Amino acid sequence: MSPRGFAVSFVFFILQARDLRDFFIFSHMRKTTIPFLFLLASLVFLACGDAKTSASKGQSGDVDAAAMEASDSGTLVSQADVSEILEYLSSDDLEGRNTGSEGIEKAAVYIENILREHGIEPYFESYRDSFEIKGLTGYNLVGLKEGSDPQLKDEFVMIGAHYDHIGTGKPVEGDTIANGANDNASGTTAVLELAKHLSGVDTRRSILFSFFSAEEMGLVGARHLSNRLKKENLDLYVLFNIEMIGVPMTGKDYDVYLTGYELSNLAQEFNDYTGEKVIGFLPQAKEYQLFRRSDNYPFYQDFNIPAQSISTFDFTNYDYYHHVSDEFQYMDTAHMTQLIEKLIPGVIGIANDPERSIQMIEE
Fold it and tell me: Are the beta carbons of 12 and 54 closer than 8 angstroms?
């Protein structure tokens, strides 16, 4: 490509970025020391003669209308959409989403429909990765967004959350349904919103959007999927698991904590991609060994990669863990919307960094 052709493509990339964060991620990943304004001014000068022609040929790329509308309004994620998904997944109609139940089947169909609607293809022959447990059939759901880079598309980033819950709990005023709004309809909602947004974003690496079942029965679904993908020699780079983000943390200088914080440089690199301190260290997470208690752990064991979970539940900010009152009405959807927006540039950074910058830290 000629210098002018590169300039044209680059300028239109900037102009079509969903917001300046997308460009920041690109420029930061390049790890260049050239001042941004000088570079941009030079490229505009080179491109000005051909910009109109390039635009007429469609070189700026296609961006779906919904994404453009969100960008114009200054937001990437709709709070109304977050609320709609979260409210349905935690509704009484789903009966607490116990593995093998009619309720979790409804949740699975709902998730599949959203993935299909936004062009996220099934990774296997269908979205479902089935397994048996205690005479029941469980389903993980796995969607694929294929990467664009000829080499890096064979490396995979997994964004995951468990979508099951415990079904019923100790009755409170006649209510026995443990709706699991925070645990983990909130994380499931976040993965769906990330899938919706990233479906329209070019990423070098391929992304798997995974929804695990039977987490509440001992990480059974995640263990099954991890073993299956390991046998298939999947080149899994990072697993980013989202667990209980329905209420904000208080008194912290970060938005979420990372389990197994000291085991990798994931938090540091993620914050580097976003340009702000999104992820921090919570001592209680290590004290309670939370790294071993969510769906990230089987992938860490099988692949020996940065496979870690983020959460905002710190045992002080929410009273309804595994409780029938874990319901939609107690969720802070404004907080969730803002958090999901903050996660987007970090996930794009992981998927687009030409280097495998996120690594395990040897003890």
Answer: yes
